[in-house]
């Protein structure tokens, strides 16, 4: 049984319902208007032993692969955060996971 149609429908519903407008600009490429989904922030597991370090939350977003096929490090994303009205700039720092329909990208504030 081919589930491609169902997967496509689920992606459209997910990004249509939970997604927010964004402009994604990979290095040396044109800006692409798309929708992203802010995912719950994650933290690394605490260190073992006597090592003490800071555990900052990592910001992660899902970016559609059909609009943005690749998200190399340094890609700039202009998007609003939850309940804010003005967009902020973020840059991709690392790829967390790649799925058939979206990238999960770790982002940092653009400085």
Proportion of strand residues? 35-45%
CATH class of the domain at 19-42 and 57-109: Mainly Beta
Give the CA-CA distance, first to last residue. 48 Å
**Helix share bin:** 10-25%
Shape: globular
What CATH architecture of the domain at 19-42 and 57-109 do you see?
A: Beta Barrel
Provide the gyration radius in Å: 16 Å
Counting DSSP H or I runs of 4 or more residues, the number of helices is 1
Low-pLDDT stretches are none
The secondary structure category is mainly beta
Major sheet strand order: 1-2-3-6-5-4
Element pattern in H and E = HEEEEEE
Summarize model confidence as the mean pLDDT: 87
- Please outline the major beta sheet: 6 strands, antiparallel, barrel
Compose a concise summary of this entry:
The chain is mainly beta and 111 residues long. It has one helix at 4-18; strands spanning 20-25, 32-38, 59-64, 76-79, 88-98, 102-109. Strand 1 and strand 2 form a beta hairpin.
Task: Outline the structure in words.
The chain is mainly beta. The chain has a domain at 19-42 and 57-109: Thrombin, subunit H (Beta Barrel), CATH 2.40.10. It is built from one helix and six strands, in the order αββββββ. Strands 1-2-3-6-5-4 form a six-stranded antiparallel β-barrel. A hairpin with a 6-residue loop joins strand 1 and strand 2. It starts with a helix and ends with a strand.
Looking at this protein, list some descriptive labels.
single chain; 111 residues; mainly beta; Thrombin, subunit H; 6-stranded antiparallel barrel; 1 helix; 6 strands
